[in-house]
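ok trying again, last paste got cut off:
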Amino acid sequence: MAKYRTIYMLLVLVIMGILLNNALSAQLLNGWLQEGFAWQANWQTSVVFLLALLLSFIGKRKYYCNYLCPMGALQELTNRFTPFKKRLLPTRFKGLNARELYLIFIAGALLLGFTPPLAHLEPFLFFSFRIVGMALIAFGGIIIILSLFFTKPWCSVCPTGCLLDTISYKKSKKTTS
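nice, full thing came through this time. structure:
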């Protein structure tokens, strides 16, 4: 199946990202918490969320990120065709992971009563060509440029991926050296 991975990622990008504009995000999850889970209105997103939740719980960490996320697909496609050597983006700060810090920032702001525009803290509106603004185009462009040099830079700070990894029932086993 590895030889079809590029085609699959291209389909995820086109179908999930551009055509359906279907990505799990902190804004979506916050909206569901505030307004309720209206699965009839957008059943595709509900199915993707339940699948991601179920598979994370049974131990398939990063399933959504690796197989269904349009931003992950865009970064992976950029990584495949870059002429530059890819590195990992440094994500540790005083023992904390950047994803965890970003998620704590968002959760803290929401708990303190601030309502930051969560759509502007994530690049998923980059795929909404009808409503995207210049700032989000720049945000998405920066991620694409960073993807030329780093392996999946947005995934290293994505709060949705961090949240899905946090609820995983079976944590991946760490090897000792």
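cool. The chain has one domain: 2-166. Strands lie at 92-93, 96-97.
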